[in-house]
């Protein structure tokens, strides 16, 4: 097939998939791993796990923020493609339904 084609359903589905992934990440928070220091039985281990959880939490937060941006941009692209499609359709319908005037194909 020649030309350019966008699958709006796939674009919208990709955006939803990213949002669903973010939502599932919210069900299991990194803070759920962290627990009181005495549960580890060793102060140094408890400190290391706490630091790890803090770093991991920052990373997950950054990834979630980026994923939200990706999802929003995918949605925005789908909307622009749909609006452009609708505008082109309306334009062509106007040409076809025109009852008089110059032949647009003759130009």
Topology, pairings included?
Elements (H helix, E strand, L loop, with lengths): L7 H20 L15 H55 L10
Helix pairs in contact: 1-2
Give a written overview of the molecule.
The protein contains 2 helices and no strands. Helix content is 70%, strand content 0%. It starts with 7 loop residues before the first helix and ends in a 10-residue tail after the last helix. The chain is rod-shaped, with a radius of gyration of 26 Å. It has one domain (8-95). By secondary structure, the protein is mainly α.
Task: Write a brief caption for the model.
This protein has 107 residues and is mainly alpha-helical.
Order of helices and strands: HH
Low-confidence stretches: none
- Total discrete domains: 1
Helix content: over 70%
Backbone shape: rod-shaped
Number of helices: 2
Mean pLDDT: 84
Radius of gyration, taken over Cα atoms and rounded to an integer in Å: 26 Å
Class from secondary-structure proportions: mainly alpha
**What is the percentage of strand-forming residues?**
under 5%
| Major beta sheet summary | none
DSSP strand tally: 0
């Amino acid at each position: 097939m020649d030309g350019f084609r966008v699958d709006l359903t796939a674009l919208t589905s990709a955006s939803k998939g990213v949002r669903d992934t973010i939502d599932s990440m919210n069900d299991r928070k990194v803070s759920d791993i962290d627990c009181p220091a005495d549960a580890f039985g060793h102060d140094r281990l408890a400190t290391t796990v706490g630091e790890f959880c803090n770093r991991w939490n920052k990373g997950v937060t950054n990834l979630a923020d980026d994923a939200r941006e990706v999802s929003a941009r995918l949605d925005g692209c789908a909307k622009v493609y749909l609006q452009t499609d609708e505008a082109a359709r309306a334009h062509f319908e106007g040409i076809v339904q025109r009852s008089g005037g110059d032949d647009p194909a003759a130009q």
